[in-house]
Fold this sequence. Notes:
Elements: E1 3-8, H1 15-28, E2 35-40, H2 43-52, E3 58-62, H3 79-82, E4 88-91, H4 94-98, H5 104-116, E5 120-125, H6 129-133, H7 137-148, E6 161-164, H8 181-198, H9 201-205, E7 209-212, H10 220-224, E8 231-234, H11 241-255
Parallel strand pairs: 1-2, 1-8, 2-3, 3-4, 4-5, 5-6, 6-7, 7-8
Amino acid sequence: MKTYIVGNWKxxxxxxxxxxxxxxxxxxxxxxxxxxVVVAPGALALQSLSLQIDRHKMKLAxxxxxxxxxxxxxGEVSFNQLRGLADYCIxxxxxxxxxxxxxxxxxxxxxxxxxRNKITPILCVGETESERAFGETADVIRDQVVGGLSxxxxxxxxxxxxxxxxxxAISSTKSAKLASPDEIAxxxxxxxxxxxxTYSAKVAEAVPILFGGSVNPxxxxxxxxxxxxxxxxxxxxxxxxxxxxxxxxxxxxxxx
Length: 256
Ligand code: PGA
């Protein structure tokens, strides 16, 4: 399986800044066949970056999209409209769940719409600090994984990526802490078990599981060697070119 390094730019960079950043990143990063580099700019930049990007080197992700293909949904962008622009789309990020109140039902429809439109959803799951403190982590993860994938058939499971992002470890969270490799390994193992219980072991084993939450160049190597982790979803550190490039190089090193 490839290693996935996904940069989530969130609500940062103008269209021009995004283009300059991508230009520099393309110059800096060689073509690593076994590392899939993905950047997720804001929706407005997707059109121009899709013309600029070298798809042999890296891919584009959207940060969000709506599950209806078209219609009276003022302000939304559909997965259908993303066709040809983005290869991936982040779905169910904790900022979507908690700031924009997306529930598992909405997220499940988005995962289904992404797959239907041939865009790979990166389904984010993760417990909050209080859910962890109350011992609810396993239940929350199970609900989010099973709920998010409930419209995905056995044969479509290979079109899905899962990202474990404990909400308390995300850098924008007030009291963000670093997740330990053991904490990550335990949840990643649980996610794999949920997939194996729901689908056949063969397809479940092939689903990439990423980790995200305050990843930076100094911890990326440790996180990439956590058993069961197939890549990283990076917020803050992906905005700094030298750091993101460093993480990509680390992924290459760990892989070989
Ligand atoms: P962070 O964000 O790397 O800044 O913690 C990760 C994310 O929210 O996807």
